Amino acid sequence: MPNANSLKKDWWPSPAKLNVFLHILGRLDNGYHQLQSLFQMLDYGDELAFDITNDGKITMASQLEGVRDEDNLIVKAAKLLAKEANSPLGVTISLNKRLPMGGGIGGGSSNAATTLVALNLLWKTGLSEDQLADLGLALGADVPIFVRGKTAFAGGVGENITPAEQQEKWYLVANPGVHVSTAEVFQAKDLPRNTPPIQWKDYIFEETRNDCQQLVANCHPEVAKLLQWLLHYAPSRMTGTGACVFAIFSDKASAEHVLALLPNAWQGFVAKGVNSSPLLNKKEQYK
Ligand SMILES: C[C@](O)(CO)[C@H](O)COP(=O)(O)OP(=O)(O)OC[C@H]1O[C@@H](n2ccc(N)nc2=O)[C@H](O)[C@@H]1O
Ligand SMILES: Nc1ncnc2c1ncn2[C@@H]1O[C@H](COP(=O)(O)OP(=O)(O)OP(=O)(O)O)[C@@H](O)[C@H]1O
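# adenosine-5'-triphosphate complex -> structure
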């Protein structure tokens, strides 16, 4: 239960995303991959609160389990913005972590984006959305998409973003409890890397796939088991490089019904797919 102190805080949303599909078109000389993906914003995620100070220090109110503060993407994002905008101010950041880490739902990238967007307003550093997205790219391939906050098609290595309104569906997101390293998936010899490009206007879910799914399911039987279980109920797929898996429903009640049936070994949540992220809505309130 939140304590009195946390109730007083001004919490900023840090939503999750799903890669509804993820095609790998090729590999560049620098090792990065050319992708095509539909990034679906969800109305569910972490929350961050920012207590501004005058001492120029950037600190976490408490350490995120397993992540040293200097490695935390939140701290890295705040430091990057302070340096770029030459801000003399500091901040103490509180994090309410709900999203599983390393699950392919973008928690760390989203935390970094929320930090950039919120501190740009609270520190009054006045960077444009384009400048924040460029800064974000230095922290991770998915940070710009969270800065922009729109459900979108992405091309290039992920930086080429085209907002694309989708029908708002409900998703059951389930975590098989295994950790998948994004870098290892992209280094795998057997990863398919030759999917032909599609035209965004021709996008149909059934004609797409996640090119990482087979490889990850082969290495992690729990992922395969969870997918098999979900497929009994609804169209289901892995997101990003895993390990989370999602199932698509047209209404909330059906998604919650299947969540209630989810075996205890797996954790899950139900979220609405939204075209504009909760971060974007929060930002609008500051205008
Ligand atoms: C593939 C996605 O999971 C889709 O959401 C993301 O784009 C990956 O985002 P991320 O985890 O923030 O990725 P980064 O931290 O930038 O890169 C992690 C590693 O993934 C590989 N990587 C990432 C993006 C990309 N287009 N090609 C790659 O080969 C690189 O080996 C890199 O070392
Ligand atoms: N604030 C943060 N929240 C979550 N992870 C963080 C954070 N800062 C650093 N990390 C590190 O980043 C790693 C990846 O976390 P994240 O939750 O972003 O993975 P992901 O959901 O697989 O992301 P993606 O979909 O972008 O591949 C974690 O294992 C953790 O070590």
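# post-check
The first strand starts at residue 12 and ends at 27.
Residues 19, 31-33, 35, 37, 104, 109, 140-142, 157-158, 182-183, 186, 240-241 surround CDM (ligand 1) (CB under 6 Å).
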